[in-house]
Design a protein that fits this description.
about 65% helix, alpha+beta, 9 helices, elongated, Ubiquitin-conjugating enzyme/RWD, four-stranded antiparallel β-sheet, Ubiquitin Conjugating Enzyme, about 300 residues, UBQ-conjugating_enzyme/RWD, 4 strands, RWD_dom, GIR2-like
């Protein structure tokens, strides 16, 4: 920021601190460099007993808020010097972390929280008794904080379990369907599909016009229609094949059969040659037996003719 913007931010913060802190704020310097002193106690407006208190002095450099504020702490009651020094170191660290933003009220609020943790009766000095009381008070604070955390977790888990049970019961029961609810759903569904079809260039949902428009005007056949068309095409092919068998002639390649005939002739000739070679020695015996059988038949015939002549 430039110096003018820094001065404007400081003026706005000064007005805010006067409205919020009121009597607890003491303006030590209203011009640049500004300086404030704030009385800080654990509880304001009588919310609880205050056993500790401090006065914190904030010195605002010209480059604030881009440059951190300097903080010094003085004990009013209930704190030792070492505790004030510890608080100063903590505030210096927090101021460094919050450079670039108005931080005075933020630091005041952090100091108040630090005092609440050490707001113990009788802890007015650095004695062992005071330290013991402080530790006991811190332990009680931690236990209370842990109990509050556990209670919050139990409450949140209980609410979540109730919500889960309601959701589970609702899923089991479902949504009852009535004629009125179905008609309402169908009307909305058809309107939605009609809008989708119009957006894609179709006419509507009736008659699958949306799909027809998407396919160039041709309706995509269903699975049943494709199956029936396949059966019809197979039957037509069978009929055409039967007509060709009845009216036409099959063309046969004669060369294939000629080759087979030549092979068969060769096999027959080879078989004849084998027969002649195997049975050549028995040919003369068969011719003599045939001549004897012929002569016998001739004699029997002549004898038969003579018997028929005597009977006459």
């Amino acid at each position: 920021m430039d110096p003018t913007q820094c001065e404007e931010e400081q003026a706005l913060e000064a007005e805010s601190l006067e409205c919020i802190l009121m009597d607890d704020l003491e303006v030590l310097s209203a011009s640049v460099p500004r300086q404030y002193r704030v009385r800080v106690v654990p509880y304001v407006n009588g919310e609880g007993e205050n056993y500790v208190a401090v006065k914190a002095t904030f010195s605002i450099p010209p480059g604030y808020p881009d440059t951190k504020a300097d903080v010094s702490v003085a004990a009013v009651k209930g704190l030792s010097t070492s505790q004030c020094q510890e608080l100063e170191r903590l505030m210096d660290q927090k101021a460094t972390e919050n450079e670039g933003m108005a931080m005075v009220y933020l630091l005041v609020d952090m100091i108040r929280e630090w005092l609440i943790e050490r707001n113990v009766a009788g802890a007015t000095d650095g004695s062992m008794h005071a330290e013991m009381l402080k530790r006991m008070h811190m332990k009680e604070k931690d236990e209370k904080r842990a109990a509050d955390t556990r209670a919050g977790e139990v409450a949140s888990s209980a609410s979540l379990s109730e919500e889960d049970a309601l959701m589970r019961q609702k899923r089991l029961e479902g949504t009852p369907v009535t004629p009125e609810s179905f008609l309402k759903w169908r009307t909305a569904f058809e309107a939605e599909m009609a809008a989708c079809a119009e957006a894609k260039g179709g006419v509507g949902v009736a008659g699958k016009t949306g799909k027809a428009a998407g396919n160039g005007g041709a309706v995509k056949p269903s699975g049943k229609e494709m199956f029936l068309r396949h059966l019809a095409g197979t039957a037509e092919e069978d009929e055409e094949g039967a007509e060709e068998d009845e009216g036409g002639r099959l063309e046969v390649e004669s060369e294939l059969f000629e080759e087979e005939e030549d092979d068969s002739d060769f096999e027959l000739e080879s078989e004849d040659d084998e027969d002649e070679s195997d049975y050549g020695d028995d040919s003369e015996e068969s011719e003599e037996s045939d001549a004897a059988a012929t002569r016998k038949k001739g004699r029997e015939k002549k004898g038969g003719d003579g018997l028929r002549g005597k009977k006459r």
